[in-house]
Design a protein that fits this description.
50% of the residues lie in helices and 7% in strands. The protein is of the alpha/beta class and 561 residues long. Helix 6 links the parallel strand 3 and strand 4.
């Protein structure tokens, strides 16, 4: 079959269906010199899109690359990608009180951001209320403080939840925060079936790299599969998990390890859902991923393409998923916080631009760009605006969004894609031999591999084999002149007072009754999500729900390796 014949087959089926739903942004895409840019460039000879005569198509092309919007999705999960719609531009934000974070969200939306991404403070992430003694000194410091549904309501004041896509970086108590979000949406009059967004909900990477876990693995996995099951029926457009390689990479892994360990965790979640009685095609389309965009631009582009191809094959061949939506690896990307430097922080704008470019060239569905000052403190409005403008310049001025998978066919890109896939599959095979991701984590295998990679990278920097501009080379004497964002310590007192009034005004009889039901449900097998929603709607707090579950399930304590 010739390139033309295969291209026309794709054009008349997959592409035609897509264009009926999503028109392209322009009638004609062209360079500044007026050269037409093809929707998708083809191998060996570029004229297929024009209908020119073409050579026979190499079968390995279909096996490894194919066409965008078709298996194995190496070239993208949508047929037209950014020609129809740009990636969702998110800025991860949250600090201080719900009121302050709400102001930042509305500011970002006014600046052209197209999706919200919520950062929660540390007490919220590990299931403690702002007035818990363990939360002292941490309230509102690295994210927004959310203890009750009323905090969540303030967080999204004047933001219609039916009309925005919201990502929440929450893991151990993910179901409870999702319950609060749903309760607020219902109060706004939104249709729960129309809510769009993502809950991170990835506990395995917490055990590996990040540490904000609460419960042991078995009940943690139950919470995750409860969310899968509930959302499949009630919130069908919600991404029920964002399997996260980002934190694995931030902890020091290589790109190969990031792909391997992320997909191994994804396999574990699929297996847990199947063991819980779910059908693969009922939940697989709501799975999503979260990757890091690091400094080596071409390696990162190849990494995203390899991950997409690998997941498609895993879902179709290993798990026998039948729906194309189940094969698609859809992912959010964040630029690499670990690469930002306190020295010459303006240089971080350049780093973030290159990293964001790699994510776009690699086909991300949504993107967060870090701010230049994040190695020093929480980002200011000006720094956040520059970070958002970075995405907008890439989208509107660079031209890289005008053709799907524009670097495909580069000998180097295809070589790197194949090599990353090969290395990641070797790791997954070793993890399978151990009994899966959870066993590998319990043995400390992934943790040790990451630590060794991080140590090697640090040695290379110290020996100047790897240059970090402004840190181990090209240093200058400098005075810090950037504006600084400060979090007022008084906000902790305000949150404590708010919780005191909440507990005094609610119906204590209902609270006791519902927490008793929660104990019984946690000991049993029923889906906990409806009960979480009922609890938060009756003013039971995050900490009270988590402490009740701690009483039933206990807490996870990591072993030393």
């Amino acid at each position: 079959m010739t390139i033309n014949e295969q291209y026309n087959k794709w054009k008349e089926s997959t592409l035609k269906k897509s264009l009926a739903k999503f028109k392209e942004r322009k009638e004609r895409f062209e360079t500044s010199a007026g050269i037409e840019v093809p929707r998708v460039a083809m191998p060996a000879y570029g004229g297929a899109w024009r209908g020119d005569p073409a050579p026979t198509l190499d079968e390995s092309y279909l096996e490894k690359l194919g066409f965008p919007g078709e298996y194995p999705y190496t070239r993208g999960v949508q047929p037209t990608m950014y020609r129809s719609r740009f990636w969702t531009m998110r800025q991860y934000a949250g600090f201080s009180t719900a009121e302050e974070s709400n102001k930042r969200y509305r500011y970002l939306l006014a600046q052209g951001q197209t999706g919200l991404s919520v950062a929660f403070d540390l007490p919220t992430q590990i299931g403690y209320d702002a007035d818990d003694p363990i939360a002292h000194g941490e309230v509102g410091k690295v994210g927004v403080s959310i203890s009750s549904v009323h905090d969540m309501e303030i967080l999204f004041k004047d933001i219609p939840l039916e009309n925005v896509s919201t990502s929440m970086t929450m893991n151990a108590p993910a179901g409870i925060l999702l319950a609060m979000y749903i309760a607020v949406a219902k109060k706004q009059g939104a249709d729960m079936h129309k809510l769009r967004g993502t809950i991170q909900n990835d506990i395995l990477k917490e055990y590996i790299a990040r540490g904000t876990y609460i419960f042991p693995p078995a009940p943690s996995m139950r919470l995750i599969t409860d969310i899968f099951s509930f959302c499949a029926q009630e919130v069908p457009y919600w991404n029920t998990i964002s399997v996260s390689g980002y934190h694995i990479r931030e902890a020091g892994s290589t790109s190969v390890q990031e792909v391997a360990f992320t997909l191994a965790n994804g396999i574990a979640y699929v297996e847990a859902a199947l063991a819980a009685g779910l059908q693969i095609d009922d939940f697989a389309g709501q799975l999503s991923f979260f990757f890091n965009a690091h400094n080596n631009l071409l390696e990162e582009v190849a990494k995203f393409r390899a991950a997409r191809r690998m997941w498609a094959r895993i879902m179709r061949e290993r798990f026998k998923a039948q729906k194309p939506a189940s094969w698609q690896l859809r992912f959010h990307t964040q630029t690499a916080g670990s690469t930002l430097t306190a020295q010459q922080p303006e240089n971080n704008v350049v780093r973030v631009t290159l990293q964001a470019l790699s994510a776009v060239l690699g086909g991300t569905q949504s993107l967060h760009t870090n701010s230049m000052d994040e190695a020093l403190w929480l980002p200011t409005e000006k720094a956040v605006r520059v970070a958002l403008r970075t995405q907008q310049i890439i989208a509107y001025e660079s031209g890289v969004a005008d053709s799907v998978d524009p670097l495909a066919g580069s000998y180097l890109i295809e070589h790197l894609t194949d090599e990353i896939e090969k290395g990641a599959l070797d790791y997954i095979s070793k993890i399978d031999d151990m009994g899966g991701a959870l066993t590998a984590i319990e043995r400390g295998y992934m943790q040790n591999e990451i630590q060794n990679a991080a140590y090697t990278a640090q040695q290379e920097i110290e020996r100047k084999e790897q240059i970090v501009v402004g840190v181990n080379q090209f240093q200058v004497n400098e005075e810090m002149t950037l504006e600084r964002l400060k979090v007022d310590p008084a906000i902790e007192l305000g949150q404590r007072e708010r919780l005191k009034k909440l507990r005094e005004s609610r119906d204590q009889r209902v609270v006791v009754e519902l927490l008793g039901k929660l104990v019984d449900a946690a000991k049993g097998t029923e889906n906990l999500m409806p009960l979480f929603i009922e609890c938060v709607e009756n003013d039971i707090t995050l900490g009270e729900i988590c402490n009740t579950l701690r009483g039933v399930w206990g807490e996870y304590v990591a072993e030393g390796f």
